[in-house]
Amino acid sequence: MTVQLIGETALMRRLAAISGPNAMQRWHQVIGNAAVREQKLLVHRKTGNTGRSIHLASATAQAATTDAGGAAVYLEFGTRPHDIKPNAKKALFFASQKITTERFGAGATLNFNLSGSLSAGSIRKFGNAAFVLTKLVHHPGTHPAPFMLPGAVAAVQQAGLDPIVDAWNTAGDL
Hints:
Elements: H1 8-18, H2 23-42, H3 49-53, E1 55-59, E2 64-67, H4 72-77, E3 82-84, E4 92-96, H5 101-104, E5 109-112, E6 117-126, E7 129-134, E8 137-139, H6 148-158, H7 162-171
Antiparallel strand pairs: 1-2, 3-8, 4-7, 5-6, 6-7, 6-8
Helix pairs in contact: 1-7, 2-6
């Protein structure tokens, strides 16, 4: 029994038209660099560390991969509510932007809400800043702020695939 693949020669011509030596790898490198650029534009900026960590990890003939460090995974997918406890010390000490010591008075001890709640913390005022000293923070979690996938999608959409599609379509007609 013989099997004949209808359109095999047209398919081979199309593949040859868009391939060539290292053509797909170069194409994926261009798309990967464009994805990095888009992701850096979309990332939520607080310190800029995550944006600086975005880079093209690899570009092969099959795919391009971008990578990001810092808080990228937490920004992309968000976090669940969780408790924060001190690791090496007996208490947590941090600056608070949401608490005004004028309202509570310096050194006030109370339970209060910071988009979550603190357990019996105390507020200290140093200059114009308010600092909190506590043993436990109930963090409410964060909403996702995706930038990796939307950046990659935007890069592919802006990459201008028209020349490849045209080469593919015209090569099969020869």
